[in-house]
């Protein structure tokens, strides 16, 4: 398991839910953290708590449906952190549930792809080349196991596009020291998952950490966080290593 002490992690959508749990866990492992949210005040309290662990904490803000805002938040992150070693593209939007499946709107698709795909790719394109130069980096792009729900197809298709994006990079990343993988946190009781979801957000750990901590040189893997619920980090890594 690689040491995270002194490394910098960027977590998008860090203010609550999976993002807040991830940021806290990374800080507890010694990683400095860049917390992203729509507004700086959304992560103020979390930043104060994480700073008490002894790591450095930076907050950046930006609306991921606005590509200029994406560029600006990346500029701010790099200016303050210097380099990003680990990226969790956690932020996403869920489009409305359309009872009439034939009335999913074009705007649903546009908004979903802008946030869930285009901004995710833009973040990867900006931060991965320096990782390749340093020959170490971890990129974890959150996806979903959603299927057979055409009422939410704008969201589910955007996540399928993320899966394709990650898997197409597998040969390019082989032997580089940089790994990019997929993480499904599970159906969680968050703003995105809704109150009827079966799992508490805390159950995303330790599984959500696995793709950042594995050091096997493999990209393009799909990790389901719920497969590791209740395990220690060491046990989760052992289980993941068995593939």
From TrEMBL:
Top EC class, one word:
oxidoreductase
- Tell me the superkingdom of the source: Bacteria
Assigned keywords, A-Z: Oxidoreductase
Q: Does the keyword Oxidoreductase apply?
A: yes
Tell me where the signal peptide lies: none
- Say if the entry is tagged with keyword Oxidoreductase: yes
Entry EC number(s): 1.-.-.-
Tell me the ranges covered by the Ketoreductase domain, including all copies. Answer: 7-190
Give the matching SMART domains.
Answer: PKS_KR
- Pfam families listed in its UniProt record: adh_short
Quote the SUPFAM superfamilies the UniProt record gives.
NAD(P)-binding Rossmann-fold domains (SSF51735)
| Molecular function, one GO term | oxidoreductase activity
Similarity section? Belongs to the short-chain dehydrogenases/reductases (SDR) family.
Descriptive protein name: Putative oxidoreductase
Biological source species = Lacunisphaera limnophila
Tell me the classification of the organism that encodes this protein. Bacteria, Pseudomonadati, Verrucomicrobiota, Opitutia, Opitutales
